[in-house]
Amino acid sequence: MFERDALGRLVRAENPASKLTWEYDAVGRVVRSTQNGDIIDYAYDAGGNCTQRTLRPGLWQAVPHTTRYVHDAQGQLTALELARDRLEIERDPLGRPTRQASVSGYRLEQSFDARGALTEQRSTEVRRRYTYDGAGNLHTVQDARWGLTEYRHDRSDRILVAQRQRSGHESFRYDAVGLVAHARRVAPEGERDLAYLHDTAGRLHRVGDTEHTYDEAGRLVRKTVRRNGFRPQSWAYRWDSLDRLAEVRTPEGQIWRYSYDPLGRRVRKYNPATRESVHFTWDGDVLLREVFLKPRGAQHDQQVVRIVHWQHEPGTFVPLARLEDGQLSYVVTDHLGTPKELVTPTGEVVWRAHHAVWGAVLATDDASKCPIRFQGQYEDPETGLYYNRFRYYDPATSLYLSPDPIGLLGGLQPDAYVHNPNGWLDPLGLHLNSNNATGNFGIYEIRINGILHKYGKADLNRITQSTGLPTRLHQQVRKFGIIHGIENVEAKVIMEKLPTTKVAKDFETKVLQDYFDRTQIVPEGNKRSFKPILKPSPKCG
User: Fold this and answer.
1) Where is the RHS protein conserved region domain positioned along the sequence (predicted)?
2) Three-state SS string across 226-279, please?
3) Cα distance between residue 153 and residue 254, in whole Å
4) How do residues 268-326 score in pLDDT, each as one tens digit?
5) Is the CB of residue 320 less than 8 Å from the CB of residue 332?
6) 259/513 Cα distance (integer angstroms)
7) d(CA 411, CA 429)
8) Residue 95: half-sphere exposure toward Cβ, Cα within 13 Å
9) How far is CA 360 from CA 76, 100, 298, 356, 357, in A?
């Protein structure tokens, strides 16, 4: 059930698992939202930037949880205040975060190259350097803890080899449509060669000794591992009518059930045998709080085991801080926004992780301390799957368990993750690449030697993390940089929040026509695709 006000704004939504409400100020900003009785209040400055968010006391917590934000004149976050600490964020003229400093002593220095790619991170216990190849792909990572990792790519920017100094290597071959066809993994504990068998629809039916079975909707319903000398081990998956994973049965017979709010966000996972559960609270599309419960007594009562709050950089899926039992940790993320360390306000590393190419954790201090993986992904230890907002991702296969919810609008490989996980992201589990796909599209401009060269449109949800640019714009900058020198190419987004590529195309045409009307010039990069309308000159008397 959904309810809207006279202005068409969503004010109430309800299903059997959750009840949501929203309140707005005079200019349409959300000032209060509720989720199953939990109240979240928001305050804003004159520029529309959120200055304070408060999760009020409720069923699970007795005291408010408040985060304060400070922004500069451009709306960029420059300080974060929570748990009696303050994190200052310094940025260069292009808005890139070059320094983080806590009042308690933590420091993180970051460097970027001329293209905007992260090249170095330095802190008391963190040392990491990045290099990139001529195509802008990640080439090496030198980490003080994990050693050197070197990557090689094919001409389609897909990863062929990841060679690790201290934890073995991975290599991949791909089929004609870009899906992994063969993987070889060499680690201290042994070697594995895995052949991938896909059907014509791109569904994975076998990888190594593991078989996959799907229903008529293309959703994974059974995974069976067959090893010589052992009984088969099977996982069973049940889906609801909205294509959401509702239940998983493990080989040991454990059952986990999952519930979702009216917006499709997961709000609860529950084990009926042990009566353990985890409840989730959301701030938009990012996780705000985890509440872990265990049974108390013989009835259905539960008691809180622990509560974890998460803070993300506003408007992104990049985590900044974690708070549990009053203990604050800052999150150090890599070039892709993946958490690599948790650091106390005084600079001590209390958690770190090392990852495989497709996101599996190779080594970590305590996986439960930080379940966030690639941006937008949350690891479920009971299944090994990563909840990815609208879908579930399996890092062991580099595939989702179900087709893209937006159907063919998501592309010709409906189960696939991104083609290069070192440079591409899919924080919602959706691919938006059709002319009618809905999302956040924008208009960009490119200047070469200060002269306007091109206007274009791009999907602003698809970002190349090495440069921070929309992927379409990143590709254009890379191409022109080879020809003219990267230092002579300027690029920026001039319009955003356009709902479809059709609307973006219409605005692109309008921007080009307006420019032609003013200058009688068609930018060089648009001459093949844009034909201006020649308007008659005004007649004189």
Assistant:
1) 330-362
2) CCCCCCCEEEEEEECCCCCEEEEECCCCCEEEEEECCCCCEEEEEECCCCEEEE
3) 41
4) 999 999 999 999 999 999 999 999 999 987 667 889 999 999 999 988 899 999 999 99
5) no
6) 50
7) 13
8) 11
9) 32, 28, 38, 5, 7
Give one word for 367, left, alpha or beta, with left for phi > 0 and alpha for psi -120 to 50: alpha
Query: Which long-range CB contacts under 8 A does 476-482 form with residues at least 24 apart?
Result: 476/446, 477/115, 477/446, 478/135, 478/136, 480/446, 480/448, 480/453, 481/115, 482/134
507-72-116 Cα angle (round to 5): 65
| Measured CA angle at 105 (ends 100, 106), to 5 deg | 40
The dihedral formed by the CA atoms of 280, 241, 221 and 253, expressed in degrees to the nearest 10: 50
Place of tokens 């934000």: 69
DSSP, collapsed to helix, strand or coil, labels residue 413 as: coil
Length of the chain in terms of residues written: 541
Query: Are the beta carbons of 256 and 271 closer than 8 angstroms?
Result: yes
> Tokens 């509440």 appear where?
291
Q: Are 50 and 44 in contact (CB under 8 A)?
A: yes
pLDDT in tens, the chain (541 residues): 899 999 888 999 999 999 999 999 998 899 999 999 999 999 999 888 999 999 999 988 999 999 999 999 888 899 999 999 999 999 988 788 999 999 999 999 999 998 888 999 999 999 999 999 988 899 999 999 999 999 999 998 999 999 999 889 999 999 988 899 999 999 888 899 999 999 988 899 999 999 999 999 999 999 999 988 889 999 999 999 999 999 999 999 999 999 999 999 999 999 999 999 999 999 999 999 999 999 987 667 889 999 999 999 988 899 999 999 999 999 999 999 999 999 999 999 999 999 999 999 999 988 789 999 999 999 999 999 999 999 999 999 999 999 988 665 555 678 899 889 998 888 888 754 333 334 577 899 999 988 999 999 988 877 765 567 887 788 788 778 778 888 889 998 888 767 666 667 878 888 888 888 888 899 988 887 888 887 554 333 3
- Which residue from 381, 538, 507, 377 is spatially nearest to 442, judged by alpha carbons? 507
Which residue do the tokens 């590529």 mark?
Answer: 501
Secondary structure (H, E, C), 13-77: EEECCEEEEEEECCCCCEEEEEECCEEEEEEECCCCCEEEEEECCCCCCCCCEEEEEEECCCCCE
